[in-house]
Write a structure and sequence with these properties.
alpha+beta; FAD/NAD(P)-binding domain; D-Amino Acid Oxidase, Chain A, domain 2; 19 strands; 28% strand; globular; binds flavin-adenine dinucleotide
Length: 389
């Protein structure tokens, strides 16, 4: 006999684990299925730490979602009785007119968020771990900090199980087939019926969502940890987490020494190298190490001790580098949550709520119109027009 559920969630990384938790907490009969064991090394939701910040430089329209995400992270901590979110402040460093600096300032101003501007001299006194060039500055978002991804994902799954969700691990879903009455979900183990399905399969999303085949691009991301030369100035209460604009070279991110491995740094999107999600992540190579060693020696000299670890992980980029959270076109029973272009983890706690809303109510009061299939198509059309002109 085929087991029947209200909602099936396929993929239990960040987005799927939060979705099963929100659904089960509402008393919805939910099954969650993951091909592996969540927060595994081929997912995008492991590696100790993720940045969270409120004055979003990318676009001020993300701020209301972030405000809700902060509330939901604190609610998760309260239920788990565990620390998931730690406030260290986040420094956004660069030239005054760089997108990271000017965009953070603009977001903070528009939403009346507290922030501080620090010039090169003020940075040297206050946060001596960082080396700034003349003319560079930092905007401090005092409400920024870092999240613990593994604690969050496992926490959401544990809460979901406690609230009655059925969770299957090591089971790969091979097909989802919507019809007038529900959706059939098939795997090598069996098949299930649900009224709605949420697809949150990270870098594998295009396998179950054909509309994303051309547009969801998994790429290689590398991060490295260093034992600091000066362990005093790199402690979390002396060194905020940071983003740094490097002009044409893109941007870098990093964290203070929050664990035994020390400081963690990475270059956002690294070398933009496409990867096959069904192959193991390509190993870290000399070019990767040289890039990150060079950055840390130049920009964080106090932290430039010994590199103790470096790993390859994966981002999945959409064309606009935004998110996609919507019903599949023409399929009101299928909800899609993209892996969020390398900056989605901080939103996990609100995306879980949104996915539960979409599955159960057919819509949400939270502002997600910018993350629709229609918005993605419109971005692509505008990009095509720009390329022609
Ligand atoms: C190195 C790195 C640093 C990052 N830094 C930040 C940061 O500082 N701040 C921030 O906000 N964001 C950051 N991000 C982005 C953020 O972590 C991701 O957006 C987010 O974790 C994506 O989660 P997900 O649930 O979509 O995907 P995943 O965590 O990859 O989960 C997808 C799951 O689906 C499962 N699955 C796939 N196919 C199937 C199938 N057919 N059947 C069943 N299960 C399936 C997989 O096994 C996997 O567990 C970073 C990402 C990386 C990699």
């Amino acid at each position: 006999m085929t087991a029947e559920f209200d909602v099936a969630v396929i993929g239990l990384g960040a987005m799927g684990s939060a979705a099963v938790s929100f659904l089960s907490a509402r008393g919805v009969k939910t099954i969650g299925i993951d091909a592996h064991f969540p927060a595994h090394a081929s997912s995008s939701s492991h590696g100790d730490s993720r940045l969270i910040r409120l004055g979003y430089f990318e676009d001020p329209s993300y701020v209301p979602l972030l405000q809700r995400a902060y509330e939901n992270w604190r609610a998760l901590e309260a239920r788990l009785r565990a620390d998931v979110l730690t406030i260290t402040g986040v420094l956004q460093i660069g030239k005054p007119d760089s997108k990271i600096v000017s965009g953070t300032r603009a977001s903070c101003k528009l939403h009346h968020l507290p922030y501080e501007e620090l010039d090169q001299k003020a940075m040297a006194t206050r946060f001596p771990a960082f080396a700034l060039d003349e003319g560079e500055m930092a905007v401090l978002d005092p409400q920024g900090g870092y999240l613990r991804p593994e604690t969050a994902v496992m926490g959401y799954l544990n809460l979901a199980a406690a609230d009655g969700a059925v969770l299957h691990f090591g089971e790969r879903v091979t097909a989802i087939e919507p019809d007038d009455a529900g959706v059939t979900i098939s795997s090598a183990v069996g098949s299930y019926r649900a009224r709605k399905v949420i697809v949150s399969t990270g870098s594998w999303i295009a396998e179950l969502v054909p509309q994303l085949r051309e547009h969801a691009n998994p790429i290689r991301q590398v991060v490295a940890w260093y034992q600091p030369r000066d362990g005093f100035v790199t402690q979390p209460h002396r060194m905020p987490a940071f983003l740094r604009d490097e002009g044409e070279e893109g941007s870098y991110f990093g964290f203070p020494a929050i664990g035994v491995d020390g400081i963690k740094v990475g270059r956002h999107a690294h070398f933009m190298e496409p990867i096959d999600p069904n192959q193991a992540n390509p190993p870290v190579n000399d070019r990767d190490n040289a890039l990150l060693d060079g950055f840390i020696a130049k920009r964080l000299p106090a932290a430039a001790g010994v590199r103790v670890n470096a790993v390859t992980c994966r981002y999945t980029m959409l064309p606009s580098e935004d998110f996609l959270i919507d019903h599949m076109p023409g399929e009101p029973r299928v909800v899609v949550a993209s892996p969020c272009s390398g900056h989605g983890f901080k939103f996990t706690s609100v995306v879980g709520e949104i996915l539960a809303d979409l599955a159960m109510e057919g819509g949400t009061g939270l502002p997600i119109s910018a993350f629709s299939f229609e918005a993605m198509e419109s971005f692509l059309a505008q990009r095509k027009m720009r390329a022609r002109s």
